[in-house]
Queue: 2 jobs
Job 1
Amino acid sequence: MTEREYNECVNHYADNVYRFILKNLRNEEDARDVVQGAFEKMWVNRLQVDNEKSKSYLFTVAYNHMIDHIRKNKRISLKDDFAEDSRGAAQQHSNAKRILDEALAKLSETQRSLVMLKDYEGYNYAEIGEITGLNESQVKVYLHRARLQLRAYIVRPENVI
């Protein structure tokens, strides 16, 4: 990958990668750090990166950086998740976006990433498998289970608008 191709990659995919990471981390500063780390790694390894596969490489690196970040901050994240769960169960929800965000927050890191890659970013199963390191059938199974979990949460009587 040349410097010009790298710059084109940044221009084309920076927003998509940022949105994907932000939706999973739910923290703008952390998302910026993860995306910057992904682009930095891509720059360092640009001579080994095939320009045709730059999007997949970038999302894979960003996904792996995000998982590393989550693991480092797991105790804080778990504490925040428990606080959100206790508040969410006590309140009636009328905002569809908030309900969907809460449902996504209840998914595991892997499930949330798969849903975001498939339904938000529009990747196919093979591309998602490349990004996450899962095989195509694992992607399908995990995605199916995540959607069942989302549906179960969204259709709960207290969440019906």
Job 2
Amino acid sequence: MRPLLAIVGVVAFAAVAVMASVLPNGPVARSERPSATPTVFEWPAARPTEQPVPAHVRLLSGFALPIEAAALPTEEAYLPNSPRDYRAGCHEGIDFPVKAGTPVRGAKAGTIARIDSVFTDWSAAEEQVAFDAAQALGYTPDATLDRIRGRQVWIDHGGGIVTRYAHLSAVQPLRVGDVVTRGQLIAAVGSSGYPVGGPHLHFEIRDGDGFYGDGLALPELRYAISVAFR
């Protein structure tokens, strides 16, 4: 009986030790500019066991890629949390670098919460003033982030989940309140808001007041993204 209790005690202690582990602290080296050829990376089929996802992160799933036939970007500069030093902030979404005019499709069924049918881009002078102010503050204000995203469509999926599609060149004739289906054409890729990066779709999954993957280290972030599009 005593040997059995000892074995149970050892197993319980090991389980507690695993549950008590946390993500490593400290900065992660990131490149500001992605290379011309994205790094080949095999998306994980299972959660990394050496660095478990924290319990407070809500893993989401069931999203389709907003760019048909595209691959999930793997280079860190294309993913959330990558630094954006020019505005003292970080990236909050996933960038899909594709040609201007590429169709953008809804990642999941939902209701149009915002659609910029009429849009005027800001001037270079306005942009510089906003970036200088962000540098002085040490973070990027929400109003500046909104201008950087340019022409946008937002889809509300319920439960606090919203997807944002940004830097668009044009949108479909939809209105706030319209119901859209998964894979429905909603817009076209452009470079509005911040043309320096060239044409691409900036895609965000918002969970409540935050963005999906906020603060995760790269292995856990890649896992969380792979689950979202699984």
